[in-house]
Amino acid sequence: MLYPYEEKHPQQQFAFVFNTNRCIGCQTCTMACKSTWTFSKGQEYMWWNNVETKPYGGYPQFWDVRILQMLEEANPGGQVWNLAQKDGGQKPYGVYEGVTIFEGAQKRYGPEGQQRAIGFIPGDEEWRFPNIYEDTPVRTEGLDFVWDEKGVSLPEHRTWFFHLQRLCNHCTYPACLAACPREAIYKRPEDGIVLLDQNRCRGYRKCVEACPYKKPMFRGTSRVSEKCIACYPRIEGKDPLSGGDPMETRCMAACVGKIRLQGLVKIKEDGSWAEDRYNPLYYMVKVEKVALPLYPQLGTQPNGYYIPPRTVPRPYLWQMFGPGADEAIEKYLAPSRELLAVLQLFRIAQKIIFRYEIKEGKKVFETSINGKTWSMYNDTVIGYGRDGKEIVRTTVEEPIYIRKDLHLNSI
Is pTM beyond 0.90 here? Predict the structure, then answer.
């Protein structure tokens, strides 16, 4: 893949995993971010975190459809995967053999010369509706949005939609950074967070144009661009409630549906993840391989990962998450004993969990999934912070607490 700057990578990388199967679309994360960072004049349309309903929703509208069309125009019919080339954690599902947004720009020229990444600047009308088509299902052929017994049967629903949670992916190869003629965007060496130096920015909006996920946004009142900063004071442990420990971002910590887990992963010199077997993010992405990047064919190597929705037609998921979607869903439908325990760590604490430990419990349930026996164990999972101190412990089965009959409103 082509990239305009020489290879250099941070010591750690800010990363996160979202479980789309749990999201209820409540937008609590969206408002947590909005009320913290983008509530001022000129930021009215800025939603650094948003939750959009797929397949019709998007913010800005049609952001993914348009960039995928541009990619196809750059290399018609060439966006394919070689599934024969699989190699553990580095190439778990094969090799993408199509062009990325960086190669696709090789024949595109503007007034300033050759573009560094294909992209577009959304029009005002595309920024108007942050929740357009919210909770709108796909039209089922012949049913006109009517649910029936065939429409709600697994493994795929005929009538379906799902919520896609989005924020800046703080990519390994950020298109916004590549495109900025002022070199105003940089990647922090300590945690890989992508930030924008507003003193250098001149508001050319090249970052807005190049980012395929459309997360840098131009502020008209100041004439410079702004973007998600990954709540870096919390990551640094400078939040007054942190006690000096790294904390999850505001959008992560506010999640009601417990779909989010965010942390830091160790990075090797070549940019790959260093082995860290009991880091929950490393486990889900590199070991269990149940979490996948969003539109990996774009070439930015995003550090946001998703457990795909299990009820959605597979071709749609292959386009969105790559060919690993089938295997990821299969593993999620019948989770291993370890995966089931690690899933309990989602949104369990505000402090970042760097390592987990599982203490085995007794069998509490048994059933059959896809013709195979599946058992559930009430294991205890313990999360540890950066300093090795215990942050939280919980069990696979949620405990039940019975209040003493001390008050008139006791149940």
Answer: yes
